[in-house]
Write a structure and sequence with these properties.
It is built from 2 helices and 3 strands. The protein is α+β, with helices and mostly antiparallel strands and 80 residues long. It has one domain: Double Stranded RNA Binding Domain. It has a 3-stranded antiparallel sheet with strand order 1-2-3. Strand 1 and strand 2 form a beta hairpin. The relative contact order is 0.19.
Amino acid sequence: MLTAFINAAMHKAHYEVLSDNEGYFGKIEGLHGVWANAHTLEDCREELREVLEEWIILGVKRGHNIPIINGIDINIKEVV
């Protein structure tokens, strides 16, 4: 489920070329603070995936509500 969530989020990523050939910038809309930049597009994708993974771990640890992506809900639910 976590892998599916990460893959779905990465499919929503948007990349742009930075001015003056300074590399690439990538972000995932709807996931505040999930962005990366690097010299190559591939490095930017890898960095963005790492940032996403860390964002998820921190969000879960702090009890934040993680947005549902493509019907994939990774939020921890209290069992009663």
